[in-house]
Amino acid sequence: MIDDAGAGSTLVRRLLGRELKGLREKAGIPMDVAKDVISAGKQTIWRIETGQNVRLRPIDIKGLCEAYGASPEQTEILLGLAVEAKHKGWWHTYGDTIPKHFEPYVGLESAARRINTYQSSLIPGLLQTPDYRRVLQWEDSPSMPTEEIERGIELATRRQARLVSDDNNGPILDVVLDELPLYRAVGGPHVMSAQLHHIIEMSGRPNVRVRVVPRSADMHPGLLTGSFVLLEFPKHPTARLTEPPVVYVQGHTGALYLEKPTEVDEYRNVYTRLQRLALDDDASKRVILDIAEELAQ
User: Fold this and answer.
1) How many angstroms separate the CA atoms of 23 and 69, rounded?
2) pLDDT tens figures, 102-125
3) Fewer beta carbons within 10 Å, N or C terminal of the chain?
4) How many Å is the maximal CA-CA distance in the chain?
5) CA dihedral in degrees (111, 79, 38, 24; nearest 10)?
6) Cα(227)–Cα(249) distance, rounded to whole angstroms?
7) pLDDT band at 285 (very low <50, low <70, confident <90, very high)
8) What's the pTM?
9) Residues whose CB falls within 8 Å of the CB of residue 229, separated by 6 or more in sequence, listed in order
10) What is the pLDDT of residues 65-102, one digit of tens each?
11) Cβ atoms of 284 and 210 closer than 8 Å
12) Rg (the chain; Cα; Å)
């Protein structure tokens, strides 16, 4: 079973950052002034406020709270969050393997309650078999040592463990896939056939749903947005402390984390339209199984 200790540290840093940013803006203090309070650069203030992995010293948090006019109660809460944010997530042991732009995503994914993803070219990471993923990693980094490749496979396996946990704490995974990539025999027919059978097996779980947009579908919004992931998080007893949804869009050398409500709503609308275009569960399974059997011949 996966050890989720520290899985929420990413959310804690983001919550602490939002609270500090709110206090700063309410006090009318620009970043250029805030940075002098803790003798740091403007970039450090930005990193704190956006929940980046940055050193959070209690003396700095206390100093910012005093400068922003926070009440003693608010200061105590934020200091508590700063302590909690120091707890490392399990993925930090793979720091030598995870690209810097992807590390925040792993933390967010580990804390997400619902994961909606549209994939137009590849199988989503949470459903990839080790053989399928190994081929992708070799293609992306052909000179990477075998040991590092296998570390990447191990990381992927740990990410997937939440989906099959027996403690009912796993996320809901809702996947919409274009049909055409299912024919792309990544790693050869045998590897791809096994990958497709794995998707069918996983889609039988109560928390996993996979639907296929048929190749007969006309122009649709997913062709414009490309692949993306919409992450939603558990509700906090105090509503304003609930982590807002995040849209993750991965590029080859970087990534976008979209959080503005207007941006999230746009992607949510696209996902809803893609769901309407997709085949139902049974029809999707038949398509995937037919392709798997065709590849296996």
Assistant:
1) 8
2) 888 988 898 899 999 999 999 999
3) C
4) 70
5) 80
6) 7
7) very high
8) 0.82
9) 105, 109, 115, 116, 117, 124, 247, 248, 249
10) 999 999 999 999 899 888 888 877 777 778 778 888 88
11) yes
12) 21
Nearest 5°: the CA angle 164, 151, 93 is 80
Six-digit token pair at 137?
């990693």
Q: How far apart are CA 32 and CA 268, in angstroms?
A: 35
What is the rounded distance in angstroms from the CA atom of residue 46 to the CA atom of residue 292?
48
* Tens digit of each residue's pLDDT (9 = 90 or more) over 29-63: 999 999 999 999 999 999 999 888 788 899 999 99
Q: Quick one: the chain helix, strand, coil %, rounded to 5? A: 55, 10, 35
Q: How many CB atoms lie within 10 A of CB 100?
A: 10
C-alpha 285/C-alpha 210 separation (Å) is 8
How far, in Å, are 43, 69, 118, 219 from residue 208 at the CA level? 40, 46, 14, 27
Q: Whole-number mean pLDDT of the chain?
A: 90
The residues near 173 (Cβ < 8 Å, ≥ 6 apart) are 115, 117, 126, 127, 163, 207, 208, 209
